[in-house]
Amino acid sequence: MPTFTAPDGTRLAYRIHGSGDPVVCVPGGPADSGYLGDLGGLSAHRRLIVLDLRGTGRSAVPEDTSSYRCDRLVEDVEALREHLGLARIDLLAHSAGANLATQYAARHPDRVRRLALITPGTRAVGVVITGESRRELARLRKDEPWFPAAFAALEAISEGTGTGTGSDDWDAISPFFHGRWDAAARQHQAAARPDNAEAVTLFAADGAFDPRATRAALATWRSPVLLLAGEFDLNSPPGSVAEFAELIPGAALVVQRGAGHYPWLDDADRFVATTAAFLA
Length: 280
Description:
Elements: E1 3-5, E2 11-17, E3 22-26, E4 47-51, H1 70-84, E5 89-94, H2 97-107, E6 112-118, H3 131-138, H4 147-158, H5 168-172, H6 183-191, H7 197-203, H8 211-218, E7 225-230, H9 238-245, E8 252-256, H10 263-266, H11 268-279
Parallel strand pairs: 3-4, 3-5, 5-6, 6-7, 7-8
Antiparallel strand pairs: 1-2, 2-4
């Protein structure tokens, strides 16, 4: 696995899938980027440069753990761009990684050619997702056999009566993040689970986000942007992603029907067709 050095000396790793023009890919979590795979076959159209964020996958743990903060990770992406020798990059980000990619685009607008945000987190732009909006979306799955137990766990978490991160309640709501809750989804959910709790906690530490400044930067954005939401995604509900899209002039919003938080897993052909067309 190739590596490069971040500005503070931390050694960072990345994966390469496919060939052709590169797309820099930022995972969510922060988690080992392996869960992205080749994004359902997107690597048949573009060369995917998939970053392992510091402290995850094969990237080193930094000496200064406060550098896990989202806004500070921006310069890791910039260091990767310089390492690759690219004047501008096509940037794709999933879930919480969209908060990082959005801040990178706000700070380095001249370095981004296209920006694809897949089932994006919204904290960087201050879009608040309420517990009620999640419950309303969850009710669309009421006919699924796993729904009663999963919905009860969701209510316990929303009301603060759950037993905490990593508990049975959090495991029980996993089906809500997938369009199909089958063996492949169970395996993928386990692979996508972050294993560096400190990196997850400090990612959103005080000062990590400045929504007013980020919104102001995006309001003048002129490069192509895609926001792709999953119809059933409890993490990034389509309504919240639409609110995000409204902040960016000319942004394209696509809601992938039948998909959850990992749309390349739920319908790879549809996901790849949409994303490849945008990146082309």
